[in-house]
């Protein structure tokens, strides 16, 4: 079992990531990774670019997303199949259409509704405090 | 799950990531503190390193692999499906397309179709059927037909648009049976991608079509493609400079150095010029980081009009979000992303010229009783081509630019196809590829037209042996160098998309090798390659050129026969095109159209045509020309116009705001009630104590005051104030008043310059209309200078531009010296010296503004004349008069 990098922020998380998706995938391929994910904040805007390079370099690309919620810890979401991907895309659409441009308002409750088929990873907060606990419905499969 | 929370691919990017953090938090690198990452570890590490770091938690490492293995979804498996509902039940899309196409064919060509046409249509339909694109054509047909039904002008272009089928479907008005059929040639079965048809709509009414598409297919199935706007050098240096704590004025200086006319990259010389030290480490870091930041996505902006329409829900494929503009929704992927996944998109573009043409058609109907359409304008009229050859094309589509006007007398277009060639030829690409002069020489018969072989002749004959269009480049690659159609298409793409610039060179080896192997000389092969390389970013498809040429012809025809209609239509579609209203108005005058000043009793918001005077209708200037006037005020003015205004109060009673009345007075629009500018301003001031409410209608106090004799305004002052308030003057050209002084300074007029011998050293003064420094011209700057007679083209070479940048960019009246170059019917002045003659403008007024300042500052004056303050407040301030002329349009 070897390590794959599954939490990657590109510059499509505007003013957060310091590299283009293409650069990240290219480097992953150089380092001998067999798969890499892209987890930009509430967006799939960079995934096609990453996918094109991954296809070219012959590594697996996982289009994923980091969900920043209004009322809970941030989640990494990995769709296992197309239906799950479509659900995540629908979830982001829901959040986008609720908010003005460049904002995406999502609640924990929304995630439960669109969660089927995706694997979620909870990102611990900067400081672990007493009130940080795992929501019961979301478990790593 | 183990993860390194990667934020950059390489540790060296940490600095840039910190800068981004600062930009986000609006801090500088010095006070961002804990906002920054603690270390530079968030890069993509080797798996081994990660395993070492997490050696205590092997399960966490294993989980990454588990999750990766569990994800089976590949973006490739997203299947795009065309929308279904346009096909009537019980029919296949192919059958329905054939039915609609033939129905259109009979409408255009009558019951009996020519066998050639029928064969072509069947061939095209069969091709579309094999490729499964019938629904694509039906989709385009659907919204084009809707636009037609709403009387919105539109026209399609693109390789697939120039087909017999699209003509019959009403998508394009250019009869492809008259010109070469481009459709079949390259839509080979090798290319799996969807066809590409761009449709241009009137820019003022495109939104209606877009909203129709949203309604027709539903907001969950149709969305606009965004453009990923990326940071340009100017924005990047601002971001980095601020984050790195540079002083505000330093940042400003640097970002200005990247300004519109400066060179793109910052070299040491420029930095020294800015008074900065290029060797200073902090600054060098700023510039290095700026280099990295350029090209970073900044936001998802509005695309020019690409739509994705799907059968199922769009959000199943990609997230949808609200655009900034109301009632528009976008998807998160741009054109390239969509291309990579093979989705269909349709382009609904907007074109200002179509708006102008529609307005011209409306005016032609109203004033000349003509029923014009894009299709029924008389074709192949020699007078139109004579006009283009004489470069008398200000305001027309495409051929109005300086470069086009210089080339037209040499190209001498004689027919429609010549116009298509001219549109494609006079562009940066062909100019850079050194195709223009060989073509002109051949066209004028100064150079023999030869072909290396018959197969080459077949491809290049229509452009006299010079490859000019993308289609020809592809044909050449296939026929002469043995490319497969797919490879040729790759070649086309690398020519079409600027970001792949340089990619064309990759084909060098293959193209030259292929051609020499087929018996062509190496020299010929290299020349062809060089020409193709010159296409670079700017190669133009023949299909676009033909569609554009059609609009060129239509706009020229209108200008040629109805300059009154043409001027009003263009002026009412501003801003568009190359020229300022001032030039368009004076151009109309030169063509025999009488002009009428802006007036409260006669002007509408738009320019209008009045009774016939001479050959044409008189052109009444529109209120839209009054700077700062709100359209609402103009409606109060024009709506109750059953009887003329006779007193200024009536305007206020009709609802025009005080500010609006003052603007109209400043614009000298009260002449029809016997008030000139100065009197009107005086009256406008009195309006403030107009009896209102219960006392409305009664004479105001000021009516009992004795009439003042106001100082008379000179014509030169009026002209200057016309320029300041409306951007133009129909009273006179300001240079006319400067002529006596200019004569003493030995400056010639543009007309005199046109008459002097080649090589004469002259001095010329005027107002600068354009200043252009195309990237292709090696730093040469082209200027168009205007005086009371005409315009003159100036050429300023790089070192002189550097020397006189200040004079060129900041003079109101620019004076230049240089040698006259008379060549091929056009005159150029090769500039060697420039002077700023702006101070002459001051002499046009009696300098009331300066007087005003003095008066205002002295309280004594106030005591003497209590109205002085109010009066001078309403006259133009010195600030207004400082820049009376419209700023020249400067571009690359």
Strand and helix map with partners:
The complex is a heterodimer of chains A (141) and B (892).
Chain A: H1 21-30, E1 35-41, H2 47-57, E2 60-67, E3 75-79, H3 82-98, H4 108-114, E4 118-122
Parallel strand pairs in A: 1-2
Antiparallel strand pairs in A: 2-3, 3-4
Helix pairs in contact in A: 1-2
Chain B: H1 14-25, H2 47-53, H3 58-70, H4 93-109, H5 115-131, H6 134-149, E1 154-157, H7 164-168, H8 183-186, E2 198-202, H9 206-217, E3 222-230, H10 233-243, H11 248-257, H12 268-273, H13 281-293, E4 297-309, E5 320-322, E6 329-331, H14 335-341, E7 346-351, H15 352-368, H16 382-389, H17 402-411, H18 416-425, H19 428-432, H20 436-443, H21 454-460, H22 470-481, H23 485-496, H24 503-517, H25 522-535, H26 542-561, H27 563-571, H28 581-590, E8 595-596, E9 608-613, E10 616-620, H29 631-638, H30 648-654, H31 658-666, H32 677-686, H33 715-726, H34 734-744, H35 750-755, E11 761-772, E12 781-786, E13 791-796, H36 798-810, E14 814-823, E15 826-836, H37 839-842, H38 848-857, H39 859-864, H40 868-874, H41 878-882, E16 889-891
Parallel strand pairs in B: 2-7, 8-10, 11-16, 13-15
Antiparallel strand pairs in B: 1-2, 3-4, 4-7, 5-6, 9-10, 11-12, 11-14, 12-13, 14-15
């Amino acid at each position: 079992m070897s390590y794959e990098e599954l939490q990657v922020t590109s510059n499509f998380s505007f003013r957060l990531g310091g590299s283009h998706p293409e650069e990240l995938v290219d480097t992953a391929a150089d380092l001998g990774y067999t798969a890499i994910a892209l987890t930009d904040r509430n967006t799939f805007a960079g995934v096609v670019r990453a996918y094109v390079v991954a296809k070219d370099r012959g590594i697996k690309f996982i289009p994923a997303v980091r969900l920043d919620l209004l009322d809970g810890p941030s989640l990494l979401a990995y769709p296992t199949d197309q239906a799950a991907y479509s659900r995540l895309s629908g979830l982001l659409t829901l959040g986008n259409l609720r908010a003005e441009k460049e904002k995406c308002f999502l609640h924990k409750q929304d995630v439960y509704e669109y969660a089927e088929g995706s694997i979620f990873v909870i990102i611990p907060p900067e400081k672990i405090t007493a009130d940080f606990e795992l929501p019961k419905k979301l478990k790593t499969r | 799950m183990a993860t390194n929370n990667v934020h950059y691919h390489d540790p060296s990017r940490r600095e840039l990531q910190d800068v981004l953090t600062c930009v986000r938090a609006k801090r500088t690198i010095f006070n961002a503190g804990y906002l920054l990452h603690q270390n530079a570890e968030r890069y993509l590490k080797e798996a081994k390193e990660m395993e070492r770091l997490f050696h205590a938690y092997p399960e966490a490492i294993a989980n990454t692999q588990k999750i990766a293995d569990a994800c089976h979804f590949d973006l490739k498996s997203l299947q795009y499906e065309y929308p279904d509902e346009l096909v009537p039940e019980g029919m296949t899309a192919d059958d329905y397309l054939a039915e609609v196409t033939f129905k259109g064919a009979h409408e255009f060509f009558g019951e009996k179709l020519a066998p050639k046409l029928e064969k072509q249509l069947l061939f095209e339909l069969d091709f579309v059927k094999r490729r499964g694109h019938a629904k694509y054509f039906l989709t385009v047909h659907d919204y084009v037909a809707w636009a037609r039904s709403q009387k919105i002008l539109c026209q399609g272009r693109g390789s697939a648009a120039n087909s017999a089928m699209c003509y019959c479907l009403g998508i394009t008005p250019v009869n492809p049976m008259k010109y070469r059929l481009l459709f079949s040639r390259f839509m080979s079965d090798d290319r799996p991608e969807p066809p590409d048809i761009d449709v241009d709509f009137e820019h003022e009414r495109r939104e209606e079509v877009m909203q129709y598409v949203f309604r027709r297919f539903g907001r969950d199935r149709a969305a606009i493609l965004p453009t990923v706007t990326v940071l340009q050098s100017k924005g990047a240096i601002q971001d980095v400079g601020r984050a790195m704590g540079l002083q505000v004025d330093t940042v400003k200086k640097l970002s200005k150095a990247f300004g519109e006319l400066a060179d793109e990259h910052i070299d040491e010389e420029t930095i020294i010029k800015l008074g900065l030290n290029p060797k200073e480490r902090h600054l060098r870091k700023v510039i290095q980081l700026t280099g990295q930041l350029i090209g970073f996505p900044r936001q998802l902006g509005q695309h020019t009009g690409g739509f994705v329409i799907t059968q199922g829900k769009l959000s199943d494929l990609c997230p949808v979000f609200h655009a900034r503009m109301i009632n528009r929704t976008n998807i998160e992927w741009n054109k390239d992303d969509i291309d990579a996944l093979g989705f269909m998109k349709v382009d609904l573009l907007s074109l200002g010229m179509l708006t102008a043409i529609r307005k011209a058609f409306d005016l032609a109907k109203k004033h000349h009783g003509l029923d014009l359409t894009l299709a029924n304008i008389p074709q192949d009229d020699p007078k139109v081509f004579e006009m283009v050859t004489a470069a008398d094309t200000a305001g027309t589509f495409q051929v109005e630019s300086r470069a086009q006007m210089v080339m037209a007398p040499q190209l001498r277009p004689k027919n429609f196809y010549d116009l298509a060639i001219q549109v494609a030829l006079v562009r940066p690409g062909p100019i850079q590829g050194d195709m223009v002069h060989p073509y002109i020489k051949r066209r004028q018969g100064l150079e023999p037209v030869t072909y290396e072989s018959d197969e080459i002749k077949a491809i290049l004959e229509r452009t006299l042996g010079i490859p000019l269009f993308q289609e020809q480049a592809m044909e050449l690659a296939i026929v002469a160098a043995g490319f497969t159609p797919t490879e040729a298409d790759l070649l086309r793409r690398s020519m079409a998309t600027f970001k792949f610039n340089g990619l064309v060179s990759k084909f060098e080896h293959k193209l030259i090798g292929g051609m020499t192997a087929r018996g062509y000389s190496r020299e010929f092969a290299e020349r062809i390659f060089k020409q193709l390389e010159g296409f670079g970013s700017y190669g133009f498809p023949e299909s676009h050129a033909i569609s554009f040429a059609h609009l060129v012809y239509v706009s020229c025809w209108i200008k040629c026969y109805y300059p009154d209609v043409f001027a009003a239509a263009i002026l009412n579609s501003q801003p568009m095109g190359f020229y300022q209203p001032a030039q368009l108005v004076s151009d109309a005058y030169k063509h025999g159209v009488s002009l009428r000043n802006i007036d409260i009793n006669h002007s509408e918001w738009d320019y209008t045509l009045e009774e016939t005077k001479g050959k044409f209708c008189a052109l009444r200037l529109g209120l839209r020309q009054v700077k700062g006037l709100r359209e609402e005020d103009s409606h109060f003015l024009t709506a109750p116009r059953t009887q003329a205004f006779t007193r200024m109060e009536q305007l206020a009673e009709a609802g025009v705001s005080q500010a609006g009345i003052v603007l109209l007075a400043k614009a000298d629009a009260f002449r029809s009630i016997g008030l000139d500018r100065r009197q009107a301003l005086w009256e406008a001031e009195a309006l403030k104590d107009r009896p209102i409410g219960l006392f409305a209608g009664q004479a105001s106090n000021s009516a009992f005051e004795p009439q003042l004799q106001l100082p008379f305004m000179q014509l030169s002052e009026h002209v200057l104030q016309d320029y300041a308030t409306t951007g133009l003057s129909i009273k006179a050209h300001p240079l006319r008043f400067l002529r006596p002084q200019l004569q003493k300074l030995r400056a010639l007029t543009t007309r005199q310059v046109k008459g002097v011998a080649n090589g004469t050293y002259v001095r010329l003064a005027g107002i600068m209309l354009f200043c252009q420094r195309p990237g292709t011209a090696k730093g040469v700057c082209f200027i168009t200078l205007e005086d009371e007679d005409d315009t003159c083209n100036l050429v300023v070479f790089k070192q002189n531009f550097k020397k006189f940048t200040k004079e060129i960019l900041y003079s109101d009246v620019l004076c230049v010296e240089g040698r006259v170059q008379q060549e091929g019917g056009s005159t150029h002045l090769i500039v060697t010296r420039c002077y700023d003659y702006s101070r002459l403008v001051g002499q046009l007024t009696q300098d009331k503004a300066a007087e005003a300042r003095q008066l205002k500052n002295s309280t004594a004056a106030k005591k003497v004349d209590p109205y002085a303050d109010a009066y001078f407040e309403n006259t133009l301030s010195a600030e207004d008069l400082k820049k009376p002329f419209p700023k020249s349009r400067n571009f690359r």
